[in-house]
Amino acid sequence: MKRAKVYKEYFADATFMSRHLLDGGPDPEHEQYKIMILSHSLEKGLSYRNARVFGRSKAEDLMARLEKSSPETRTSSAFSIGVEVLRSWTDFIKSRENDVQAASIRGRLDALIEVATPSDRGFRGGVATATQLDSSSWKELPFEDFVRGRHSTRRFTDLPVSDDDLQLCIELAMRSPSACNRQMVGLRVFDDPKSKELLYRTLHGTGGVDFDTCRLAVVTFDTRSLDFYGERNQGYLNAGLFAMTLVYALQWKGIGSCLLQFGNTFAEERALAEGLSLQPGERIAVGIAFGVPEPDGVVPASIRRDISEVFSVR
């Protein structure tokens, strides 16, 4: 009976997700999420080491979505972010070659802004220079500055991350909330070239990551810890809490990191789990690249939405 309820609830989850999936639906929220995904994809490309001319089709898609966007979207943070990222992208293209398509997009962008000027929220999309601090400097910052200073890092030096620092960060991450204190989450770090290559090819978002100098890992959870259908997503929640605390702990020790999305099929996950010799009940929640960051590295600006768009009291 318990297992039948698990099947029933997962089927309901699948039905719900299929109904609301981001596939170009009519809601303004669909528009805005698609704009932000495209914007961040261009930002990541701009942050790559030795970035080459790229992204024409994505820039064209983003421009078209901005032009066709609803009135609600034109007053949103997503619209402003999209405009600023396209500004940065066209500046990047023009600095490297005389690109007719980029010039056309820039002209259309300027015309769009004249009609629908986004509110001035201080958006400066594209990329930013992240000044790296050593661990002693991070410790002196007020908490709000420490949190605001976090960013995803894809550029790493060849300096090693000490095992002592890593184990301290894991110990701190283990202080994250855990359902009934079951502590179901694990961190699996892979330094051997074969496992790293397998992870690099399988995880999403590895583009631009300094493969040779970073360390690669996955955050997992043990399905054997889950008890009933209501806990079907509990492992992912616990893994997310652990991963975020780990990222902050790494930052506190002057170690850069980038969480890498695991959005693969079940078959791909099982093949990866077998290749990495994970336990039979272990599931992968998210990947992570980490290492000593490059000083003054270029990172995606990743501007956040306005607080009014994510906060409400009812």
How would you portray this structure in words?
With 314 residues, this protein is an alpha+beta fold. The protein has two domains: 120 residues, no CATH class; 156 residues, NADH Oxidase, CATH 3.40.109. The strands form two sheets. The chain has a four-stranded antiparallel sheet with strand order 2-3-5-4. A two-stranded antiparallel ribbon has the order 1-6. It contains twelve helices and six strands. Belongs to the nitroreductase family. This is Nitroreductase family protein. Pfam families: Nitroreductase. Keywords: Oxidoreductase.
Helix/strand-derived category reads alpha+beta
| Helicity level | 40-55%
Over all CA atoms, what is the radius of gyration? 21 Å
**Strands ordered across the widest β-sheet:** 2-3-5-4
Q: CATH superfamily assignment of the largest domain?
A: NADH Oxidase
Largest sheet: 4 strands, antiparallel
DSSP summary, beta strand count: 6
The fraction of residues in strands falls at 5-15%
Total of helices: 12
Q: Any idea of the CATH topology of the largest domain?
A: NADH Oxidase
Which parts are unreliable, with pLDDT below 50 for 5 consecutive residues or more?
none
InterPro entries: Nitroreductase, Nitroreductase-like
Pfam family, one: Nitroreductase
Protein name: Nitroreductase family protein
Organism: Gordonia jinghuaiqii
Question: In brief, what are we looking at here?
Answer:
The chain folds into two domains: 9-128, no CATH class; 143-298, NADH Oxidase (3-Layer(aba) Sandwich). It has twelve helices and six strands. The chain has helices at 2-20, 28-47, 56-68, 71-74, 77-96, 100-115, 135-139, 143-148, 163-173, 193-202, 234-252, 266-275; strands at residues 127-130, 185-190, 215-222, 256-261, 282-291, 297-300.
